[in-house]
Amino acid sequence: MEEELKCPNSSSEKRYFPESLDSSDGDEEGVLACEDLELNPFDGLPYSSRYYKLLKEREDLPIWKEKYSFMENLLQNQIVIISGDAKCGKSSQVPQWCAEYCLSIHYQHGSVICTQVHKQTAVQLALRVADEMDVNIGHEVGYVIPFENCCTSETILRYCTDDMLQREMMSNPFLGSYGVIILDDIHERSIATDVLLGLLKDVLLARPELKLIINSSPHLISKLSSYYGNSPLLEVKNKHPVEVVYLSGAQKDSFESILRLIFEIHHSGEKGDIVVFLACEQDIEKAYEIVYQEGSKLNPDLGELVVVPLYPKEKCTLLKPIDETEKRCQVYQRRVVLTTSSGESLIWSNSVKFVIDVGVERRKVYSPRIRADSLVMQPISQSQAEIRKQILGSSPSGKLFCLYTEEFASKDMKPLQPAEMQEANLTSMVLFLKRIDIAGLGHCDFINRPAPESLMQALEDLDYLAALDNDGNLSEFGIIMSEFPLDPQLSKSILASCEFDCVDEMLTIAAMVTAPNCFSHLPPGAEEAALTCWKTFLHPEGDHFTLINIYKAYQDTTLNAASEHCVEKWCHDYFLNCSALRMADVIRAELLEIIKRIELPYAEPAFGSQENTLNIKKALLSGYFMQIARDVDGSGNYLMLTHKQVAQLHPLSSYSITKKMPEWVLFHKFSISENNYIRITSEISPELFVQLAPQYYFSNLPSSESKDILQQVMDHLSPISAMNKEQKICEKCPETTEQRCTVQ
């Protein structure tokens, strides 16, 4: 086996089995001598001294002792499953070993790709692994995340988010450019990962030379083993035991218990950082304010308390995980990291000695019946609780404080966290699978079947959006929609904007609603000043138009600013999120590139004219006719057109700020929670809705006063107008679809 894995460019086997290096002699001369003799087979250059320093750190990882066994299994099997605790090293080391395998066979079957659920993790792993391999990031090792590609055609090992590998299958169904595919963090059960698990079964049959590595937490292993048959399994455990303290009674007032624990630990003088797992992002913001304010009053002799909010769902900033190499001040600093579920994969530092776990989370659960998300507070799973414990397993004397009882953990917590596929809107997934069906990979053997009602609702929505033909296959319109890495409703609005001559404006709206919230988190006491600044951007026609104003102001500032610092200062002065606006700029550029690539018509911008305003609303309605609400009592209580839920406008809506409540609005987001807010709203007229909503969608609406009003509007239309509308708008008609937007 060692002969098979020997590097063709080196006479030494040590490159592929670094454990055979004599690391007992740590003198500098030995390192320099080795450095002179040994070349890096990936770039042909001598190894740097940093490579050998990092190599010793790698050898201390729990996964390292399994290297020989892994390489042997990789040679002899098509699928290898790795069961590893958090921070055992599987996400950084296994891809490097796979790169060595591909190099040893001269990349005849392709390179290595490793998926991650979170884009922050993909970027940080690529940076770390490039450093460990002593190569350049963006060349031999790279990453691909939504709207950012840091790879070349010569990249040997790339990290990517699971949704990016899924999208790659649209143009490369059998993933022929890869010899090894690694699916990491399977236990997080994202939709894209579950889809890849199913589709790769067929790809493996079609490509016997392809290797698949599956990394997961131990809790999911039995399910994976039965799903993929008799595949070899490697198990890796962390080194150190963890002390677990259950605090009965803390659940009743968990927030107060968390704060008390943080300050008790800090006063104890025990060294080490603290990670706190909270239920939701609102709790992060609340805890941040309190700990920040109270921490500034502490005795400076105890050291500085540095509060680090970590938002796993944040899409704009690549949040840097806690890094042991960060320089500390001379005064001792203790970091308090505040995060939520899914933040486990972002905690890399061995300096974490304390974890506080509330044991509950706020999950977003989609209801296909009402086409809306509900925010539900529920216990975390036993697997999530175990992963939080494993964060401490790589350092001795770690302590986990559970703000719940052992009985709660055994009785109320389910063994595994629910798959996202069973709780989310599946319209985008079904559109992708319909597109893949063109390549003969439409059948997907899911590890957990999605709910039939969710699939039916997704198919119904795609039918309403004219993405399907009369046989249930993708229409030409649907194929074009699938080219955009967006929600299908947003893709439909962009395509409709081609007809209504407002593509430029629609791309800006699409970029701004896809990027994170452009409004900054406000520090205490800054609300009034922020509202004064934001009022300068308000547009009387609604929030979608306000977003265009903000983006145009940001663009003008960027063009006229002397430096990037000036742009950041402008954003800070106006309480805007600079990184979110940068991301919107990147997203918009990619969407424009897609428009040009498939040669869709692109009109000159005309923002501000009355005709353009009407056209933007038409384009928005073409995609979001299923998200309409009406103010039923004139006081801002909006009843959804599709169900009986009542909601209010978000406090940051332009209408809330100006106190002018339109009767009919189109909205972008709605979640059922304690505050039933509809977000990003713009006024529409019932006449416009009747003209643009598909007739068969309108006929399927439940009976309501709002529907009766719309029916009256429809009845008042002249027969000629009704006939013209039917010919022009009916999205069931293939001929009409072709007229509205075709690939040139």
Percentage of residues in strands: 15-25%
Number of strands: 21
Mean pLDDT: 85
* CATH class category label of the largest domain: Alpha Beta
State the separation between the terminal residues, measured CA to CA.
54 Å
Helix/strand class: alpha/beta
CATH topology of the largest domain: Rossmann fold
Q: What's the shape? A: globular
> What CATH architecture label of the largest domain applies?
3-Layer(aba) Sandwich
Residue windows where pLDDT falls under 50 for at least 5 positions: 1-35, 315-329, 728-744
Strand order of the largest sheet: 4-3-5-2-6-7-1-8
Domain Helicase-associated: 457-548
GO cellular component, one term: mitochondrion
Main location: mitochondrion
Catalytic activity: ATP + H2O = ADP + phosphate + H(+)
Question: How does this model look, in words?
Answer:
This protein is α/β, with parallel strands linked by helices and 744 residues long. The chain is 42% helix and 16% strand. The chain folds into five domains: 49-236, Rossmann fold (3-Layer(aba) Sandwich); 243-316 and 331-418, Rossmann fold, CATH 3.40.50.300; 426-483, no CATH class; 487-620, no CATH class; 626-716, no CATH class. Strands 4-3-5-2-6-7-1-8 form an eight-stranded mixed sheet, sandwiched between helices. The longest helix has 20 residues, at 578-597. It is globular. GO terms for molecular function: ATP binding; hydrolase activity; RNA binding; RNA helicase activity. InterPro entries: DEAD-box_helicase_OB_fold (IPR011709), HA2_WH (IPR048333), Helicase-assoc_dom (IPR007502), P-loop_NTPase (IPR027417).
